[in-house]
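ping. complex inputs:
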Amino acid sequence: MTMSETMPRAGTHEVKPASVIRTGRPDGCQAHFHPERYQLVFSREGVEEKIDLGFSGSRLLERLLQVPGEVVGRDELLAYAWSDRIVGQGSLNQQIYSLRQVLGDEKNREIIQTLPRRGYMLSPKFLVNLNDLADLPAPGFFPPLALPRRANRTLNQQRMATLMMAASALLILSLVVFAYIYHELFQSQVLVAERDIGNKHFTYAATTPQALEQLRNDTGGLTERLAALVEQPVQFRLGANAGFFELLCVQRDTTRWLMINRAQLPKVQDEQLRSCLQ
Amino acid sequence: MTLSKNCRWYTGGALLVAAALGALLVVCVNFKSSNEFNGRYSSSGDVILRDGHKIEVNHTLLIKDGRFYALTRQGLSIMETSGIVESGFLNRMRLRVEKGKATDLDASGNIDNDLLFNLMYGGEVDSVINLRPIGKCYFAVETRQLYCAD
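pong. complex structure:
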């Protein structure tokens, strides 16, 4: 907070002070608060002394003046006075101390009172009765400055928002990891096609649509032969890898398999196929 | 702060927590520790080689407390491997080979290259084998081996 130039009060055309506070200074002067200029103006014998409160100090006083006689929580004051950033409790303490100094209240602490573990309160008895000052707006005192909505958030809300963002990030990260494990680690892409012939069920498995189509074409004859080979229900699963066709024969109690070299597919005998159905 | 604003915050928070818990539940339900795969698995089958010969192949796998021990008998050749179960998720397993030993590999001199490659891959240290469920069995994607619970 800085003191600006001293000038005669008479003859000036200024914005009306938003509120008037009786200070604790020895000369008992009154302080006129100008929130739009972040200033306190002390009137003494026709001379004005302007004290710049700075944005945070002005906002702090403004909030306390909005509800004189009521306790304003520390978190709320922090959010109101430092709406664009998060600061520690020390900043609030420092600003309150500075305000008290300016108002001559640093020793008595009667104008801005500390309510331990609750917050601060501006004592209404130090406010000048505005009915006596026809020029001044009625206590209430002034409409709050138009602020971005974010400024009205309490610190708790900001913390909650941060927490929710962190939880969201964690959730998204979990899903990404899950997807990575599922798709990459376990190489899960397997395309299947199915076909039923009587009580035989055939499943064709491949990794690409082209390979699946090729498999179905290559094993068409084998499929017909297998279907005619036994009477009991069997589930067959066919695949191809490198130089082999793979045949899995699943019956109620047994599961066997047969690998056939591609070159041997046209020559494979029924007896060899039956070995898969033992 | 108005009541409706409060409600929005609490509703949003509750939805987010519910979503996180839901995701956690999905993971928990699908997660299997390697111990849950404990047991003995095996399968038997035949391979018809390029030259028309048929050889019998047997696969046996034992999973115990996060480790696996496997044996493949392919004709006269035997491949023994062991290692760790790296992870189990969504009923799938991933094995990492730590030790492999082939016996009488000379007897497999006439088998097809692809078959030999699968056999050797499964015995190579640090090779990874992904097991994918097929019905009640597991299929080793890299080595083309089938393991069914005994």
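Chain B touches chain A at residues 1, 9, 12-13, 16-17, 19-20, 23-24, 26-27, 43-50, 52, 54, 57, 87, 89-90, 92, 94, 112-115, 117, 130, 132, 134-137, 141, 144, 146, 148 (CB under 8 Å).
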